[in-house]
Amino acid sequence: MKSHPLPARTVAFAICLLGAGSAIADSAQPEAKDPLSDYLADLSPGAISAGEMLGLSASAITSVQTPKDFVAALSSLNTGAGKDGFGLSFTPARTRFAPVSIGDYTERPLSRLWGGTTFSYAQKTLTQSGVDYRQDAVALHVSYYLDAKDDPAAAAAFGFRSCKAVVDLMSEASTEQNKAFDLLVKAGVDPEAANQRVRETTAKAKRLKNEGVPAAKACVDTAVQQAKEKWNASQLALTVGEAWIQGSDASAARLSLGRMVAASAALGPNADSLVNLSLRHTNKALDLTTLSTTPAYKSSTLAGARWTYRAVDTKDLFGLAEVSNAKSSQAAASSNVFRYALGVDKRFFEGVWGELRIGRKLTADGTSEQTAVLMSLKLSPTSTLPRD
Fold this sequence. Notes:
By secondary structure, the chain is of the alpha+beta class. Helices cover 29% and strands 37% of the residues. It folds into two domains: 8-151 and 233-379, monomeric porin ompg (Porin, Beta Barrel), CATH 2.40.160.40; 155-227. The protein is built from seven helices and twelve strands. It has a twelve-stranded antiparallel beta barrel. α5 runs antiparallel to α6. It is elongated and about 100 Å long.
């Protein structure tokens, strides 16, 4: 099978966006050794927006939460006609390519917008009538917390700043103690007064250390916990993307699977729940039933809602239920999603998540419904909050 280069307009668009992001990062003058990536929390599995266009997620929901630095969707298994798929996502502001410091991230809306900008790519093979067709897609995903304090990374930074006051008090006491010791060897200073000063500053430094170290640790633990509690903070997102399909024959035409624009919102009604709402419009989407004849295209508007519940005791187990208006008259890319489903997200290790979905969706030809199961493993490394 031959390789499929990305369209020139897509590449140019990505380069322009990366250039703009680099300008934002450069103008921000990020603080050394304090990058945004140090303040990420592993709160839930990442999302792959391009994969959504190929049905890898089989969900009507375009995730609002910013995907992690690097997200790999593996073992995408379902009962449809598609073979295993693969997707990647890349958030430049959370890497060394175009980084943003946490200080600037918490203060500048443009930096927060860049911090929530993710590029993604996905590919999948569709087998129909004994012929393999390669599908690929690219997407741009931007998410934004209206209030910086709702952002887990910003919440952690704000919390750590309050902890700094405790550390500063201990540092000042240590400085006073050192100055007192200097007086012992300074000419013209009363030895008794100097010794008294040493005793006083030493006692103060010891007291502040005994009280401050536990207080500082408790403060950091509180900041980390407060950041993790922002998993369901309200935010908005916009995703644009395009997908294509091409047969294994080198002379086969490369056809459009659709151009997508999706607007999403996430709302947290209480500490343990999250409601996702998504409205996705797709046009020039190939009707897969016409793939081997004269290509015909459809347009559709897909709406979906999901309710997610986090287990209070485990903090790494999520249950969810979702519904959508998917129907046979919609574009093929949209009709592949679940009409309704139940699922579980489980964190196995730090940065390693498993997803299980079971529900009803349309068959590939859109003529009937079938029960489908989707299992996937998502990796999101280097997503931790600093505790030192």
